[in-house]
Amino acid sequence: MVDVTAKQPTVRSATATGRVVCAPGVVAALRSGDVPKGDVLAVARVAGIAGAKRTAELLPLAHVIGVHGAVVDLEVTDDGVDITATVRTADRTGVEMEALTAVSIAGLAVVDMVKGLDKSVSLADVRLVAKTGGKSGDWLRSEAKAP
């Protein structure tokens, strides 16, 4: 684990995205609210936020940091669900892993809730798209829109 003791806390944020790909029938069920397990997007949003807060428990070399803000947005599209998570902190190290974990866990929650309707559902394209703050400064994935 990298020692960050001497670093000064600064405001930092990270945004990650991903998508759940599923069949047209699942998209229709998501749009109509007819998924047997309930409100998929609400459950996935809460799961993603919980995932961001528990990142250090899941990744053995991740630092325990204060997650001071986490927003997980989900949008039903024609081929599935797009997920965006932005995590913020004022700490000694960044929140990139927390944003990626939030997207991953939110996506897995969607998969869990719709897998009975579509066995081929998949989580795809999880990636960091932006970060701010810290020693390395701001970064934006070249093909990404600003968060």
Provide a compact summary of the structure.
With 147 residues, this protein is of the alpha+beta class. It has helices spanning 24-32, 40-53, 55-58, 96-114; strands spanning 10-21, 69-77, 80-91, 122-132, 139-140.
Largest sheet: 5 strands, antiparallel
Oligomer: single chain
Low-confidence stretches: none
Output the strand order for the largest sheet: 2-3-1-4-5
Rg, alpha carbons: 16 Å
The CATH class label is: Alpha Beta
Structural class designation: alpha+beta
Count of beta strands: 5
Share of β-strand residues: 25-35%
Average pLDDT, rounded to a whole number, is 94
How is the CATH topology named?
A: Alpha-Beta Plaits
Helix content: 25-40%
What is the annotated CATH architecture? 2-Layer Sandwich
**Coarse shape:** elongated
Annotation field: number of helices? 4
Detail the topology: elements first, then pairings.
Blueprint: E1 10-21, H1 24-32, H2 40-53, H3 55-58, E2 69-77, E3 80-91, H4 96-114, E4 122-132, E5 139-140
Antiparallel strand pairs: 1-3, 1-4, 2-3, 4-5
Helix pairs in contact: 2-4
Explain what this protein looks like in three dimensions.
The chain has a single domain (10-140), classed as Molybdopterin cofactor biosynthesis C (MoaC) domain (Alpha-Beta Plaits, 2-Layer Sandwich), CATH 3.30.70.640. It is built from four helices and five strands. It has helices at residues 24-32, 40-53, 55-58, 96-114, and strands spanning 10-21, 69-77, 80-91, 122-132, 139-140. Strands 2-3-1-4-5 form a five-stranded antiparallel β-sheet. Strand 2 and strand 3 form a beta hairpin. The two termini are 29 Å apart.
